[in-house]
Amino acid sequence: MGINKYPHLFQPIVLGNRIFRNRIFASPTGYQNINGDGFLNEGAAAYYGRKAMGGVASVATFEGVVDGEFGKGGSGHICLDTPRIEMNLGRVSYGISQYGAVATLELQHCGMFANRDLAMFGGAGKGIAYGPVECEYGGRHIQGMTEEIIERTINKFIDAAVLAKRLGFGMVLIHAGHGWGLHQFLSPITNTRTDKWGGKDIENRCRMLIAIIDGIHKKCGKGFPVEVRISASECYEGGYGIENGIAIACQLEGHADLIHVSAGNHEVDEVFTITHPSMFQKDGCNVYLAEEIKKHVKTPVATIGALSDPELMEEIIATGKADVVELGRELMADPDFVNKIRTGNEDSVKTCMRCLSCFSSELTHGEPYCALNPESGRELEVKYAIPAPNVKKKVLIIGGGCAGMEAAITSVKRGHEVILCEKSSRLGGVLRCEENVDFKKKLEKYLNQQETIIGKMAIDVRLNTEVTPSYAKEVGADVIIAALGAKQLVPNIKGIDNKNVYGAIDAYKKTGELGESVVILGAGLVGVELGLHLRALGKKVTIVEMTDHMNDGGNFLHMSGVRVEVKKRGLEIKFETMAKEITENEVICQHDGNEVKFAADSVIYAVGMVPLTDELMKLYDCANEFYPIGDCVLPSNITNATTTAYMTGMNLGRC
Ligand SMILES: Cc1cc2nc3c(=O)[nH]c(=O)nc-3n(C[C@H](O)[C@H](O)[C@H](O)COP(=O)(O)O)c2cc1C
Ligand code: SF4
């Protein structure tokens, strides 16, 4: 018996001739903040390096496109054949390997999805795209790859791997999953060629991928490890299943050094949240695929998806379901995950709640901002933050929700004296109303964790304390951080004051009082998530929404998961429907010029939040410095609350 609590997770593994210090790898996650010349900004090396610093054995990068002309998906892609890219990439590899992790460059070709911007941004095909066969797809003409283009593509992958090795990367990861170029060749659905590169024969469909791997080994040496990411199943009706995944894995035997078993195809909306499991999926929901593949090959196998629980990861390796666990989002929520579990500090691990805010922000801002870890995507700013100030300030924080708690923790870490006032009897704020929601358990864990951290810090916590201007002045703080939050907007509808009407926050707390049929006004995230929760409790729920869509609150990828769940749980949403009157047992609405009625024992309004402006205005002159943060400035999401709180705390005492 060794001394390590997770002996299997921390057993090194050798791939090719490289030793990896443990079995936990950072899966590829994009960083798309690139300049007009196609170069990454300086934050990239810091972002990937931070994961390496936290103890993982390998850190995989963004998708490096091997062929800038024919393989690039959109403007956020980094092309490895860009002239003078070497120094830019070299800084990333060094940023990782200086911390003892293997730097792994992901190699990508978009195939038939090349030269289009993401469909979710209304992107349309612009340039040439080559797929396995000539076809019309998504309103554009796709050309079939000729022998020359296939040869060119193979050579581009090999050249990219040679470049990677030269720049200090210790492994390359070939992306042959999720619907991208090589996946298109592996799939019997998209690869209907009739020559040696495709068709019914799996050997033909894998020929290009195998030629790439063998070519890399030939040029870079047998010992240079090649990891191959595949979708073991496309996970949708009409897509290929695990049999094709097994067949691909068998072809990779003796060629690839690590088979990285992922799932899905990004072209199918419902599957996005299987590839990137949403908060509605169970932990380790895709492990079964790796387990199945592993029965058929001797090559080491990696599993990926919704892995945050160290006990589960240890069990996966110990029972031989996989040889390596790969973590995507968990390392954004907590890049120190590995070192924390290794040193017995599991309690302090921030567990990713799979809200996908990071991915949404990566696609809109180029950097993955995490709701729970405000340092994610800002590693460079953190690295060069001003030293803890000499001036110690007395800080009064008003409001103990997400923003107030984060501001308190950061301010104390920076050496300030903090008084945290919360008007209710408990820290956690408005989000505490969701603590019995099945898909919000990780949020609850986070709130409890922040509360515990605060309890252990030298913070003067004053619960049941409503801060009035005179109270604030009496405290005599140098700084007030106002994290007051927001209140629910009450719609001006006849009957809104009836006994059977609740605000969404109240409704969460009083589900026992609600009748069997419930109408929710508003299909924003609050209304829809509440609807899903009530469906799980067996209520008949109808949402009426004025517009023609659900409002995603800026997190459009979380909405993908929500949409799947709306279907699954049978949640009814009536769009372009305006509530006019609430009676004792129905909601009378207007739709398309006609009156429509919905039976309702209970009615809940979820039509938005308004900042507590009046309350805020009373406090601004109660201390020398005054910083309003979070929802009391602009009702938004957790990411916004924790980020503004963290930044405010970090910068106190600058002057
Ligand atoms: C912000 C973000 C960016 C990602 N970028 C990439 C990428 O560039 N290449 C890739 O192959 N997968 C990418 N992924 C997918 C992850 O590698 C991983 O497969 C997925 O997130 C599921 O793992 P997880 O549940 O541990 O996050 C990304 C995921 C996220 C959340
Ligand atoms: S933003 Fe959400 S999904 Fe992304 S890492 Fe943070 S908690 Fe996880």
From TrEMBL:
Residues 9-347 form the NADH:flavin oxidoreductase/NADH oxidase N-terminal domain. Its cofactor is FMN; [4Fe-4S] cluster. The keyword Iron applies. Residues 393-616 form the FAD/NAD(P)-binding domain. Coiled coil: none annotated. In the N-terminal section; belongs to the NADH:flavin oxidoreductase/NADH oxidase family. InterPro entries: Aldolase_TIM, FAD/NAD-bd_sf, FAD/NAD-binding_dom, NADH:flavin_oxidoreductase, OxRdtase_FMN_N. This is 2,4-dienoyl-CoA reductase. Pfam families: Oxidored_FMN, Pyr_redox_2. Keywords: Flavoprotein, FMN, Iron, Iron-sulfur, Metal-binding, Oxidoreductase. GO terms for molecular function: FMN binding; iron-sulfur cluster binding; metal ion binding; oxidoreductase activity. Gene3D superfamilies: Aldolase class I, FAD/NAD(P)-binding domain, NAD(P)-binding Rossmann-like Domain. SUPFAM superfamilies: FAD/NAD(P)-binding domain (SSF51905), FMN-linked oxidoreductases (SSF51395).
